[in-house]
Input
Amino acid sequence: MSYDPDNIFAKILRGEIPSAQVYEDDDTLVFMDIMPRADGHCLVIPKTPCRNLLDASPEQLLAVMNTTQRMGHAVMAAFGAQGVTIQQFNEAAGGQEVFHLHFHVLPRHEGQRLRPPGNMEDSDVIAANADKIRAALAQV
Ligand code: 5GP
Output
C-alpha cells in the first residue's frame, strides 16, 4: 500500500484545511480530533509521510512516541485525568480511517467510558480544550 499525499492529515500538514493545533516540533504535529471520544482527544502525527506503523521508519517512530509521551502528561494535567489511553490503528482491516500515521491520545477518568466514535464536536468546545492542553504543555 502506498502513501496518498491527499489524505486529510497531509492536507492539515500543508495548511490546506484547518485544525486546532496544540503542539509542534521539527518532526511532529499534534492537533485536536474533530470527533473526540473524550475531552482532550488529540492526534500525534509525524510531519513526514507514512501510512501507519507498518511502513514508519525508526526515526518517525521515535519522534512520534516521544511526542505521544509528552502529550500524555499534558492531557492528564489539562483535564485532571487519572490515566491516558493511546490508540493506533493500521490499515482498514485494523480500524484505520485516515492513512497518515497517527496516535490517538485520550485522557481517562476512573469509571468513565470513551464516547462512541463518529460524533462531531462543536468547534468552540474543541478550541477551549486545545487552550487547556497548550496551557498544560507550558507547565510539563
Ligand atoms: P483512525 O484512522 O485512527 O481510525 O481515526 C482517524 C481519526 O481522525 C478519527 O478519530 C477522526 O475523528 C479524526 N478525523 C477525521 N477527519 C478529521 C479532520 O478533518 N480533522 C481532524 N482534526 N480529525 C479528523
